[in-house]
């Protein structure tokens, strides 16, 4: 991965993360909390800068299924002491519950087991004692990166991100327009090839929500047509294409070729410089 982002884009990413995290932390309804938790995890997974932070700290694999099943009714989760293990545990816990449960209080109910406690109370306490720890770690990471790169002192600075997820390197960069143009051209050619193949697959695949399928095809085609004609798509166009694909991704079998192609195209869109 090689991508250049400007200060504005970095700040937008930080603000979007805080909003998505805040929505989850303030949730009260068990089904709405689960919906927001899925959006929270999906946002982390599809933003390379955020997922890079998770990958670097996700060194320990926890048996979340066994931990949940063996937990007593009123027992809270034993959060690891080491920071990287704490990050890994909470991320893996949220990822597991969003993939395997319909109700958020399936895991939160033990956090407000006192007499008269409501589901909303358990959700609030679980988010405060568990989820907020992960939110704070990611927020601190983004703020530290902003300080390291001098983003506040250099409003016109651009950040060069290089490497694979889990090994990304960040540096404040000056004028590398020529290299960026060459890299952008190569990336665009790869994106066009992936996107065209994905569109063809989608057209031949039956998806329960036909409207979501058509939106995905239309938005991806709009972005690729602009790229192919030599125009740079606006961030809003890329965002619509990514969000439409992310919307149908959960209904596609994980091991399928279609799922792989969706993930590749979403990642390629995420890597586009603006």
Walk me through the structure.
About 65% of the residues lie in helices and about 5% in strands. With about 270 residues, it is mainly alpha-helical. The chain has 2 domains: about 1-150; about 175-270, no CATH class. Helix 1 packs antiparallel against helix 2, helix 1 packs antiparallel against helix 7 (about 120-150) and helix 8 (about 175-205) runs antiparallel to helix 9 (about 210-230). The protein is globular, with a radius of gyration of 20 Å. It starts with a strand and ends with a helix. The model is unreliable at about 175-185 (pLDDT under 50).
Entry keywords:
274 residues; mainly alpha; 2 domains; 11 helices; 3 strands
Low-confidence stretches: 175-183
Q: Average pLDDT value?
A: 84
Rg value:
20 Å
Distance between the termini: 15 Å
Total helical segments: 11
- Strand order, biggest sheet? 1-2-3
Helix content: 55-70%
Sheet bearing the most strands, described? Answer: 3 strands, antiparallel
Number of strands: 3
Find the structural class using helix and strand composition.
mainly alpha
Q: DSSP strand (E) fraction?
A: 5-15%
Q: What is the N-to-C succession of helices and strands?
A: EHHHHHHHEEHHHH
């Amino acid at each position: 991965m090689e991508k250049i982002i400007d200060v504005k884009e970095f700040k937008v990413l930080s603000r979007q993360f805080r909003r998505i995290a805040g929505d989850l932390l303030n949730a009260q309804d068990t089904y709405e909390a689960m919906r927001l938790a899925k959006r929270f995890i999906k946002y982390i997974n599809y933003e390379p800068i955020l997922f890079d932070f998770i990958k670097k700290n996700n060194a320990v694999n926890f048996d979340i299924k066994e931990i949940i099943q063996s937990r007593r009714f009123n027992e809270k989760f034993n959060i690891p002491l080491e920071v990287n293990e704490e990050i890994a545990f909470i991320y893996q816990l949220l990822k597991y519950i969003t993939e395997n449960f319909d109700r958020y209080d399936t895991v939160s109910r033990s956090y407000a087991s006192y007499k008269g406690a409501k589901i909303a109370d358990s959700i609030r306490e679980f988010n405060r004692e568990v989820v907020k720890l992960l939110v704070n770690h990611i927020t601190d990471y983004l703020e530290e990166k902003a300080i390291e790169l001098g983003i506040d002192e250099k409003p016109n600075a651009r950040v060069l991100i290089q490497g694979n997820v889990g090994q990304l390197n960040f540096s404040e960069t000056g004028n590398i327009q020529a290299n960026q143009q060459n890299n952008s051209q190569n990336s665009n050619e790869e994106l066009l090839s992936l996107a065209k193949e994905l569109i063809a697959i989608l057209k031949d695949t039956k998806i329960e929500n036909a409207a979501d399928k058509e939106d995905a095809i239309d938005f991806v085609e709009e972005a690729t047509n602009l790229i192919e004609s030599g125009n740079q798509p606006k961030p809003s166009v890329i965002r619509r294409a990514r969000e439409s694909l992310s919307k149908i991704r959960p209904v596609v079998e994980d091991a399928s070729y279609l799922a792989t192609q969706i993930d590749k195209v979403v990642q390629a869109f995420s890597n586009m410089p603006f």
